[in-house]
UniProtKB/TrEMBL annotation:
Protein name: Cupin
Residues covered by the Cupin type-2 domain: 269-328
Signal peptide range: none
InterPro entries, per the entry: Aldolase_TIM, Cupin_2, PKS_Associated_Protein, RibuloseP-bd_barrel, RmlC-like_jellyroll, RmlC_Cupin_sf
Native source organism of the sequence: Sulfitobacter mediterraneus
Gene3D superfamilies tied to this protein: Aldolase class I, Jelly Rolls
Length: 351
């Protein structure tokens, strides 16, 4: 999977009061990873957030904000009670692991020394990387929640060092508020990152400051980094067919995996042939097509299609003066199949 964007319903390390409304906005935009803190709202409200997230098929995260052992254990128990998918943060692994055992909750504690509220990551890159290696070696630790941008180090170097030391997924957190930092996180090898306050406060570069615009911009930027932006736009069949006049000479209009979308103009009779390995679909865009088989004949009108299986001998005939046909067939398909004549085309032009 690509870089994971986790939207945190939080500000200043607290779940915001209007989290439910913000969650609805995020889910409507297709955000697939949503988290919240264990402070700011009562457990009952957090349960409601979690149920909504899970009902939409998204992944839920609870990030621990605890400064002592007892409160961190209570947070872990809250994660179990709420039923989140992932528990982020915390430093008291020995106390938390028994709480999570057998619960099906992935655990990503903080590496390094965490101080204050909001939390700050203290220590050198070497110290934090060593902590990461020690934590990642523990059974029950599935990854790490790195407060990368709340440290005073070279952050990309820190992320790279922690990823290399851990050998498990690393989520980068803390003050990520622009595309360049997201790119740095990806390039450094992190599996994902969190954004909360920046989106809620309209700080991310976007067309507008409202949450929908903010999240839309983040999702777009992540999709581009992950190579999930389509380079293709729509095509007009009328315009494409208008670019050529040759008959029985297919043009490639697009490709889906190993299947090509071809456009061809038919006039008169073609030759009897079959294809050893390829099935073909003929969809009539304009005109009328007669498909001859050895046992019958089929007339295909505009808007209709017919599938010719591999190995079946057939002969297309244009019943109208010109018949415009969309073909869907493997890229290996030669128009005349087992036959070979002056109309055989091996190298197809594109439209």
């Amino acid at each position: 999977m690509g870089l994971r964007f986790i939207f945190m319903l939080t500000r200043n390390d607290r779940t915001v009061e209007d989290a439910a409304a913000h969650l609805a906005t995020a889910l409507a935009l297709g955000v697939r990873h949503v988290g919240f803190k264990d402070v700011g709202l009562p457990v009952a409200a957090l349960k409601g957030l979690n149920q909504t997230i899970k009902a939409k098929g998204a992944t839920s995260y609870l990030e621990v904000v605890s400064l002592d052992q007892d409160s961190e254990v209570r947070s872990a128990r809250a994660a179990v009670e709420i039923g989140v998918d992932v528990l982020l943060g915390g430093t008291r692994v020995d106390e938390v692991l028994p709480v999570l055992e057998g619960r099906g909750i992935a655990y990503y504690p903080f590496p390094g020394r965490i101080e204050g509220h909001p939390s700050v990551l203290q220590g050198s890159i070497e110290e934090i990387a060593k902590s990461a290696a020690d934590l990642a070696a523990r059974d029950g630790v599935d990854g790490l929640d790195l407060l990368a941008y709340r440290s005073n180090t070279d952050v990309p170097a820190l992320i790279r060092a922690v990823c290399a030391a851990a050998g498990k997924p690393v989520i980068a957190a803390g003050s990520i508020a622009d595309p360049s930092r997201i790119a740095d996180v990806r390039d450094a090898g992190a599996a994902g990152f969190t954004i909360g306050t920046a989106a809620l406060d309209g700080l991310y570069p976007a067309e507008a400051n409202d949450l929908a615009s903010q999240l839309g911009a983040i999702v777009r930027d992540v999709a581009e980094l992950n190579g999930h932006i389509s380079p293709f736009g729509k095509k007009s069949l009328d315009r494409a067919f208008g670019t050529f006049d040759e008959t029985w000479s297919p043009r490639v209009a697009g490709q889906i995996n190993n299947m090509q979308i071809k456009l061809a103009k038919f006039s008169g009779d073609f030759t009897w042939h079959f294809h050893h390995d390829e099935d073909e679909l003929f969809l009539v865009h304009r005109g009328r097509l007669l498909m001859k088989f050895r046992d019958r004949e089929e007339i295909i009108e505009e808007g209709e299609f017919i599938v010719v299986p591999r190995g079946v001998e057939h002969c297309p005939v244009a019943l109208s003066e010109s018949c415009e046909v969309v073909l869907l067939e493997p890229a290996s398909t030669v128009n005349t199949g087992t036959a070979s004549d002056a109309r055989t085309v091996h190298d197809l032009a594109e439209v």
